[in-house]
Automatic annotation (TrEMBL):
Its main location: membrane. It holds the Pfam family CitMHS. It is a multi-pass membrane protein. This is Putative transporter. GO terms for molecular function: monoatomic cation transmembrane transporter activity. It is found in: Membrane. Residues 311-395 form the RCK C-terminal domain. PANTHER family: BASIC AMINO ACID ANTIPORTER YFCC-RELATED (PTHR43652), RESPONSE REGULATOR (PTHR43652:SF1).
Length: 550
């Protein structure tokens, strides 16, 4: 019969396999782990659910709010613009500044958010300089990952390790305890990319004659966006000849065509408004409709409407009412594996998908094809809905907006306030006046009280799936400790290490941790207690804490 310790090992293996398969959501796997620990009797319900009240989880929530504050007040984007300004057209300078900038931001906010912020910046840099995008994106991505080694709050595993040490009776890690090693790794990364890494990346810098073309490609108009997605012939103008008897929503009920806006002529100029179901239509109104020519045939057949043709000229009259944006599907998006039609995109997000690119090619059936990681979507809808689209969810990364609507900080007048809040959080964390978790909570509360971010937006900024993942996996550590599984692992490692040097134990710990699936490794507390590192290190005569703990 399987013992409790063996059951926990099997559970870890099954959870790791489910995560590695990428067929089951990570947060769902974490909840399955919690349920399995309770049903099996390995842990009580209070013990299995203790992760949701862990200081680590509370701290992660607070840091997500602080990171959102930095983004909405323009601090994060200011760093990106400074890189663009000081980097010039030198690939070497740009690479160094991108790595340092991404690492700096990542030391106080989510690395995923850092990447999302820097992607549009790099696309603009690549277009302005003619450099290959991959030669800038990859160094930035590595820097965002390495940023987790710079400060205590940079990534959840650091917080988990510090919390584990406190529970074991040791002093908690300081704010910059990771910094010495992290700095060495960061500098090594810069040297590697400058000396070797760039040679391994495909593509070389374009010559100066292509720079203008690249610049134009990035700073595109709405019409150029439509051309990228081969949609120029799928935006149509229809004039209302007489008041229609049928509702437009009923006309296009079984069609992929969408009415986006209505333009009504006045004495001086036409006024356009985003279309909403039930909107009044009068003779002389013009409608902007997306869809194929065949789908527009239903309207052309009605005497109340007159087809004017495809949109091939300036779209200025529609600019204030209808916006477009180029977005990338996030690797953990809920829509992965589903089609736009199946997911009811418009009902879910309030905007329409009008085109899908996969590998640079336009999908023939953008609405019925299941979406994959890396797919790019062109969305259209009311400008306020597009702005709210990125406030409501974290399933997509903004790549580009038309040059008519360059991105601006949403709360620019709170720039200095957010800087002071960030500085205060770091100062309190470094000084040790209050625990780090308290400093983070104070910063999150101050961000809302000082109106750098609304309370509703603060809640929406929290990646709840990540919170459930961390909270659900933490009890595995307690399960291994309670069942004796941790002692079994330590004894096995000590037997392998034998009389070998202490570095052998360190290497084995590193290998075991690195070999776990990333979401499991992210809850490093399980790993630390699994190996019962404190007991193992004592037996080998190794120090538990670094010699210097700032």
């Amino acid at each position: 019969m399987m013992g409790d310790a063996e059951f926990v090992f099997v559970l870890i293996a099954v959870a790791g396999g489910m995560m590695a398969s990428n067929r089951v959501r990570y947060d769902l796997v974490a909840l399955i782990v919690v349920i399995a620990l309770i049903v099996s009797g390995v842990l009580t319900s209070d013990e299995a659910l203790s992760g949701f009240g862990s200081p680590v989880v509370i701290m992660v929530v607070g840091l997500l709010i602080v990171g959102e504050m930095l983004e909405r007040t323009g601090i994060a984007h200011t760093i990106g613009n400074l890189i663009l300004g000081y980097g010039g057209r030198s690939e070497t300078r740009l690479t160094i500044l991108l790595i340092l900038g991404a690492a700096l931001l990542g030391s106080v906010m989510s690395s995923t958010a850092v990447v999302a912020i820097f992607i549009p910046v790099i696309l603009r840099i690549a277009a302005d300089t003619g450099l290959q995008q991959s030669r800038l994106l990859l160094p930035m991505s590595y820097a965002a990952l390495i940023s987790g080694m710079l400060t205590l709050i940079a990534t959840p595993p650091n917080l988990v390790v510090s919390d584990s040490l406190q529970e074991a009776g040791y002093e908690a890690l300081g704010f910059f305890s990771f910094f010495p090693i992290g700095l060495v790794v960061l500098m090594s990364t810069i040297i590697y990319f400058l000396a070797f890494g760039r040679k391994l990346l495909t593509g070389f810098a374009h010559d100066a004659s292509e720079q203008t073309m690249g610049r134009a490609k990035n700073r595109q108009s709405t019409l150029q966006f439509l051309d990228d997605y081969a949609l120029l012939d799928q935006f149509h103008l229809v004039e209302v000849v007489s008041k229609p008897r049928a509702d437009l929503e009923a006309i296009f009920h079984d069609s992929e065509a969408r009415v986006l806006a209505r333009s009504r002529p006045s004495n001086q100029h036409s006024q356009s408004d985003a279309f909403v179901p039930g909107m009044e239509l009068l003779p002389g109104d013009q409608l902007l409709i997306s869809g194929t020519r065949d789908e527009l045939g239903k309207v052309s057949e009605l005497s109340s409407f007159k087809y004017l043709g495809a949109v091939t000229e300036a779209t200025g009259q529609w600019r204030e009412s209808v916006g477009v944006a180029d977005i990338l599907v996030h690797p953990e998006a809920a829509i992965l594996g589903k089609s736009v039609k199946e997911y009811a995109f418009r009902d879910t997000y309030g905007v329409d998908v009008i085109g899908v690119l996969r590998g640079g090619e336009t999908l023939a059936d953008p609405f019925g094809t299941s979406l994959k990681i890396g797919d790019c979507l062109l969305i259209a809808g009311p400008t306020e809905e597009i702005d709210a689209f990125f406030d409501r969810n974290h399933d997509f990364v903004l790549l580009r907006v038309p040059k008519e609507r360059e991105e601006r900080p949403l709360v620019p007048n709170k720039f200095l306030t957010s800087l002071l809040i960030l500085a205060g959080m770091v100062a309190l964390s470094v000084s040790g006046v209050v625990p780090v978790v308290v400093a983070v909570i104070l910063a999150a509360v101050a961000a809302v009280l000082c109106r750098t971010i609304s309370a509703d937006r603060a809640y929406r900024s929290i990646h709840w799936s990540s919170i459930v993942l961390v909270a659900g996996m933490l009890p595995l550590a307690d399960a291994l400790q309670k069942t004796g599984g941790a002692d079994m692992v330590v004894e096995a490692l000590l037997e392998i290490a034998g009389d070998g040097p202490p570095q052998m134990m360190m290497a084995m710990l590193f290998a075991v941790t690195a070999g776990l699936p990333r979401p499991v490794g992210a809850t490093i507390k399980a790993c630390g207690k699994t190996l019962d590192m404190t007991n193992g290190f004592r037996l080998l005569g190794l120090p538990i804490l670094p010699r210097t703990n700032p």
